[in-house]
Amino acid sequence: MTIKHVMLAGMAMLATSALAFAGPGPSGGTITGKVTYEGTPAKMKPIDMSKEPSCAKMYTTPPLAQTVETGPGNTLADVVVYVSAGAPDDAGPSSAAVFNQKGCRYIPHTLAFQVNQELKITNEDQTSHNIHPLPKLNREWNKSQPPGSPPITEKYDKAEFIPVKCNIHPWMHGNFAVLKNSHYSVSNESGEFSLANLPPGKYTITAWQESYGEQTQDVTIGGTEAKTITFTFKAKPY
Amino acid sequence: MKRLCIEKLYLVLVATLLLPVLSSAQEMESQIGDLTGHADQGRPLYYRYCWGCHGARGDGNGENAPYVTPSPRNFVQGTFKCRSTPTGTLPLDSDLYNSLYRGFNFTNMPSWKTLTKQNRADLVAFIKSFSPRFKTEKPGDPINIPAEPALTVASIQHGQELFQKLECWKCHGQEGRGDGPSASTLTDSNDQPIRPYNFTSSNRAKCGSTNQDLYRIFMTGLDGTPMPSFADVIKPDEAWDLVHFLRTLQVYNKSPELTMWEGTKEGAAIVNAKKVENTYTGSGIKP
Q1: Euclidean distance between CA atoms A1 and A15, whole angstroms
Q2: Chain A residues in contact with B167 (beta carbon < 8 A)
Q3: What is the mean pLDDT of residues A205-223?
Q4: Which of A6, B18, B20, B158 is spaced 20 to 30 Å from B105 by Cα?
Q5: Which percentage of chain B shows pLDDT scores above 90?
């Protein structure tokens, strides 16, 4: 009886250590690449913040609008690249996605997070903002956030690209990309993105840019393959 | 054997008879106090009185819609201005009922108080049936409005400070004329220009005229418009102070707040300056 108990306990210990070793590692394939444009993109206008002196004084030269953000070598920043088909929906991380307001602009300009993931909105400015996302599928709310007030926490239960604005400062404009799975990336200043830990399979990869719309590519991943793809948007000068 | 067949036939018959009953049980209803509205009763009323603007599908694209500013409400989205529930949540049946009764100032939406109470309740039930949200979501919990504290000059003055601190003036203007620095850029959620409320006009606000209504408006926000909710950033007693101050901005509305404010030296100076400089509609242009 006692021997049996000891053996059982030993087996349980072995099983737990085996589980610990089999934890998620850097397995699966990777898709990396760049988002570029061809043609002439619209020239972004400098933002006139003179109506909000507390923000205007934070800049030596007026910042530019961000509806199209170009980088070196005809690249595009703030493009959401995500797996739109081929991967199952999964629960988002328990950490919150943070959307900050600083210098009367949204940081980041485009925030990608998952369905039902916590969204935390903060205000670092010395002025009141109202956060007014304009969803079509999700419920619409509009909240005031004066300086020094606590962060606003919210959630979205449907996948959608949502424009965000502040009615008090009409130049403020950003995007929420609410996505169904954890395989997404937002391109950086040099247009680079990376989707890691993809199990073998056939995927549809979609790139979304707020002014130029969507592009898709099908990519098949086998084993721990690393693939490189490029998305090229047609830029319009108007 | 034959008897069994007949029994089966009976069962089928009973089932087919029950079907319409069951489906009508799923029909949208509204409950306003002890008044129950039924969507199937509201349907003919909607297609007589409402669809010209709000459209056959309730999406706000009726025949008259292109000529109406602000645009008629899109019932499919389930976003409503006048609620007693927090921002982003569905309104109570009584909120929609009150909107029908009240009508909307400064818009093409008239008051429907000529209809019977039952008619209005039926219409509320039918309007709810346009949005899938009413089938899956419950209305928000109505915000609590505590009893109004006694009116004092100090509370008006504190309200005046809050008007500055919360930057209400950015849209509503320093004197409440609706001409703040952001006013000219405001758009509603349909990207149509929209005006902030001009307090000096002293007209009834869109979502009601009582002090409780004013309190509710800035705690719930007016969804679909630039007016946000202040529920998370203002305490109940502060909110009442703000209500008292907002009343003094309505210089043509003889409210107890205005009378008390005019009784003070500071208040009288402000109110008189407004009356002289302002036109009734409050363009804000100084003579």
Answers
A1: 21
A2: 127-128, 146, 168
A3: 94
A4: B158
A5: 70
Any B CB within 8 A of A147 CB: no
Q: Which amino acid is at B52?
A: G
Which domains are present in chain B?
A: 28-136 (1.10.760.10), 153-277 (1.10.760.10)
ipTM: 0.81
Residue B87: which of A141, A167, A169 has the nearest Cβ? Answer: A141
- What percentage of chain B reaches a pLDDT higher than 70? 86
A139 chain-B contacts, CB cut-off 8 A: 78-79, 88-89, 133
Domain carrying residue A210? 42-235
Give yes or no for A229 touching B (CB within 8 A): no
Query: Between chains, do B87 and A143 touch, taking CB under 8 Å as contact?
Result: yes
Residues in chain B: 287
- A31 found inside a domain: no
Rounded to an integer, the average pLDDT of B216-239 is: 94
Q: Which of the 8 DSSP states describes residue A4?
A: H
Number of domain units in chain A: 1
Please state the separation of Cα A151 from the chain's center in Å.
19
pLDDT reported for residue A12: 47
For the CA atoms of B44, B50, B52, B53, the dihedral, rounded to the nearest 10 degrees, stands at -150
Q: Whole-model pTM?
A: 0.83
Rounded to an integer, what distance in angstroms lies between the CA atom of residue B134 and that of residue B78?
8
CATH code of the domain in which A173 resides: 2.60.40.420
Residue A108 forms part of a structural domain: yes
Cβ-defined contact of B227 to A142 (cutoff 8 Å): yes
Question: How many other C-beta atoms lie within 10 A of the C-beta of residue B226?
Answer: 24
3-class DSSP assignment, residue A235: strand
The answer to whether the bond into A108 is cis (omega within 30° of 0) is yes
Is A56 touching B (CB cutoff 8 A)?
A: no
Q: Does any domain span residue A149?
A: yes
Chain B interface mutation, best of A51, A141, A156, highest count of B Cβ atoms under 10 Å: A141
Asked if B88's CB is within 8 angstroms of A128's CB, the reply is no
Q: Which positions in chain A touch B229 (Cβ < 8 Å)?
A: 141-144
pLDDT mean over A137-146:
94
pLDDT at B139 over 50: yes
